[in-house]
Amino acid sequence: MNSIPISATRPTTGIRVAQVVGLTASAYLAGSLGSFSFMSVPALMDAPAPLLAKQWKKIFDIGKVTLPPLALVSGAIFGYLAYREPTDSSSFNLYTAAAILVPSIVPYTIFAMSAVNNKLQDKAASLANASLTDAEVEAGAEGETAHQLLEKWATLNLGRSLLPLIGTLAAGWAIADKFEVLGLGAVLKTGADRMG
Prior knowledge:
Blueprint: E1 3-5, H1 13-45, H2 49-84, H3 90-101, H4 105-126, H5 146-177, E2 187-189
Antiparallel strand pairs: 1-2
Helix pairs in contact: 1-2, 1-5, 2-3, 2-4, 2-5, 3-5, 4-5
């Protein structure tokens, strides 16, 4: 009888913990970044410029402290999982992709978003003493308004959120590729024997 085992080996508890923590961290990171563009920015766009700039600065300050370490930890976990896989395995390649994609939010932020981040920080500083409800504070001002800068930032941030999202999907596929039926000893029959 020809059969293909559904699983050859069961991952160790350490590997399973690494898989869960890596996936959870990268998925949380992707969701956090995506939520800035999909939920926070639309709410901020309704605010007067001084309030918008102050609230964006708060989001930025919290994000720059919490999200890069999360990306680096998740990337390191996926790197470890890639190291643990055989080099001829598709899981190795998927984990390696995740290990590169997830922490790449850091260089993406530095190289693709620094200009708009700096302009928004300057805008927040220049509007710090304005009344938070002054809707006309930027009327007739030269250069980009806080609202225009925030629109650019939201688009760039959406692109940034795709990096950990794709990394999460790659790592999830690598994990699912090793899926096993726990303790059932299930086999897939092939050829003429498959009908019993």
